[in-house]
Amino acid sequence: MEEILNLLQENARLSVKDIAAMTKKTEAEVQAIIDKLEKDGVILKYSAIVNPEKVTQTNKAVQAVIEIQVAPEREHGFDAIAERIYRFPQVKSLYLMSGGYDLQVIIEGESLQEVAFFVARKLSTLNGVRSTKTHFVLKTYKENEIVYVDEKKDSREGVTA
Question: Strand (E) positions, the chain?
Fold first, then answer.
């Protein structure tokens, strides 16, 4: 099961036939394992990783990383406020953190103003939010083990003697 999961994480476009050949299992066995992983909620979604620098659109999304300090709720801890936050459509990721702040949220908006409005009017006004610190993403170099920048090639001529 773990081997199949690892193969799908590396390339979700692999066919059942290819996975069967790589794992020395039958196609029926592979399909049954994949079906179980999906049914049990281990595999939640298949998606493409897109390099935002190569997308030709005029309005590129603005991404921000926000550090949030919150007051945990009695009997619910951080879960209740986290649920209120992750339900906003702008929220792409939300993490409970150790260290100087409690939650880290990654959001996307169409402009700096839209992100600022979300933080000022939606996020920071939630009961339990004590403070926020917003960092705008300027460029992505690597994400999810994928390097987004083109490798620089040495353009110098080789010297032969």
Answer: 62-70, 91-96, 103-109, 129-136, 142-143, 146-147
